[in-house]
Amino acid sequence: MHELSIAHSIVSQAGQAAERAGAGRVTAVRIVVGALSGVSGDALLFSYDLATEGTLLAGSRLEIRNVPVVLHCATCDRDVELPDVQLFRCPVCATPSLDVRGGRELEIEALEVEDALPPLATSEP
Ligand SMILES: [Zn+2]
């Protein structure tokens, strides 16, 4: 399943970031998912629970922030958000545009972590 491999990749990236930050546990991961990323939020949430098992992220929450497609409209000379991904045209002046400026995002935006043991109590060399 596509979403399961995405979930594994999120877990691995978030786990590495948490380790670098010295976190003991990740309690939540917030990701940005663009309307054009082709990711199903429900499938991803389901896969996430599987992918986090036995990791620093076990039991954490996955928060998905959906972002719309953003097109650049040459007529309006600005970026506009598409209300509907079926129609690639400016919602203001109806000029067709394929100049996509946003909506393909699939990235970790924030981690919520719990601190590890106090530094003095760790046994690292
Ligand atoms: Zn326009």
Description:
This protein is α+β, with helices and mostly antiparallel strands. The chain has one domain (2-114): hypothetical protein PF0899 fold (2-Layer Sandwich). It contains two helices and six strands. The strands form two sheets. It has a three-stranded mixed β-sheet with strand order 2-1-6. The longest helix is centred in the N-terminal third of the chain and has 19 residues, at 2-20. The model has no long low-confidence stretch (mean pLDDT 91). The structure holds zinc ion.
Amino- and carboxy-terminal Cα gap: 41 Å
Reading off the top of the CATH hierarchy, the class is best stated as: Alpha Beta
User: Could you tell me the number of beta strands?
Assistant: 6
Q: What does the main sheet amount to? A: 3 strands, mixed
Strand order of the largest sheet: 2-1-6
Q: In the CATH classification, which architecture applies? A: 2-Layer Sandwich
Write down the overall mean pLDDT.
91
Net shape: elongated
Radius of gyration, in Å, reads 19 Å
Named once each, the bound ligands are: zinc ion
Low-confidence stretches: none
Please bin the fraction of helical residues.
10-25%
Percent in strands: 25-35%
Note the run of SSEs as H and E: HEHEEEEE
CATH topology: hypothetical protein PF0899 fold
Which structural traits does this protein have?
alpha+beta, hypothetical protein PF0899 fold, three-stranded mixed β-sheet, three-stranded antiparallel β-sheet, 2 helices, 32% strand, binds zinc ion
